[in-house]
Amino acid sequence: MAQDGPLQIRAIREHAHPVSDARADYDPLFEMIGDSRFVLLGEASHGTHDFYHTRAQITEWLIEEKGFAAVAVEADWPDAQRASRYVQGRGDDAEAVEALDSFKRFPTWMWRNTDVVEFISWLREYNDGLEQGERKVGFHGLDLYSLHASARAVLDFLDRVDPEAARRARHRYSCFEHFGEDTQAYGYSVTFGLSESCEEEAVNQLIEMQKRAAELASRDGKLDPDAFFIAEQNARLVKNAERYYRTMFESRVESWNLRDQHMVETLEALERHLGSSAKIVVWAHNSHLGDARATEMGAQGELNIGQLMRERYGKDAMLVGFTTYTGTVTAASNWDAPAERKQVRPALGESYEAMFHETGIPGFLLELRGNEWIAGVLTEKRLERAIGVIYLPETERISHYFHTRLADQFDAVIHFDKTRAVEPLDRTSQWEAGEFPETYPFAV
Fold this sequence. Notes:
The chain folds into two domains: 6-68 and 279-433, EreA-like (biosynthetic domain) (EreA/ChaN-like  fold), CATH 3.40.1660.10; 144-259. The strands form two sheets. Strands 1, 2, 3, 4, 5, 6, 7, 8 and 11 form a nine-stranded mixed β-sheet that branches. A two-stranded antiparallel sheet has the order 9-10. It is an alpha/beta fold. It has 21 helices and eleven strands. It is globular, with a radius of gyration of 22 Å.
């Protein structure tokens, strides 16, 4: 077990920069970012207000001060595009809350929460204030779960610009119709030889669109200038999602790798579309954005966005992790179960979070890249907590911890000792009731 000696705690305390909501508190982070074109902002859970709020603040400053052109998030592409149309003043939604209505897939609170509403509202206001002709900042999804929604989006686009091409696409995508919206049933059936794969159809549809890119993009001048790019990305998503749903019944590692490779592929497609000098902020879980090579998952063969971006872009990609010691979190107890406001247990003693707690600083920024003093303390293998959309405190160690070398995983880390749950727009009775601390009613 790793030991927290006074020297280690003192080293962290001396190098930590206390943070609040003040812009000046983050000067060291912005100096580290410099001219980096990709800033990857993580989260230790999908349901913590402090992570969402701080990522939004940092992103707003990056847009205002360093000209970042897009925000790419761990969300489905079609759902995020509706929000993007709103923030760019191109959609039909009157309010930010409406623009998030397409986020209906579990876990809805991940994007339908008050912090995202505030950020989307800020993006719309910022874009509305730009000079005519300036490119507006977009809000884009990186994930690949939306196979059917993306197929429908491809058909909608082709129906408008080339009905004959739409007929061909509809014939290809009809391969999926037998399974309705149940993409996992499709993956299971193909994996175990109960039905034929739709891989060829999905691949051929993308190839046709790419071969006819210039023609399709110019078919209708009244379309959104990004319309073909959006449709092409939906076709790419169908191809990658088809493979993902087949793979998820064969290998957990391979399906994880396919998902993160797709997210990087989407990120790079977005960069090409915006221009090679475009700067992009990425929001995703620590497990996706921290370099997998520093973790036990990497040792098992998993890769992730952080690793791939470092390998391809070096210091042009800045990886920032977030941690917490205790508080509350919005999470479910099972997949597709209602959102609950749960108590987050104090971090295990052999974790980085417990080490940070010992500093006594409520919130701080710690620079890891190029900091030899801290590297010596934080390259020791320790536990790090990861809470996804499900939180099971009764199996805390097995369900929510993994070993990592923090100084190799991130370029910087932001720690908030006590955090609170994100507030869902769709509150359940379970969430409103909350969860009593384990020590209730004695609070000791």
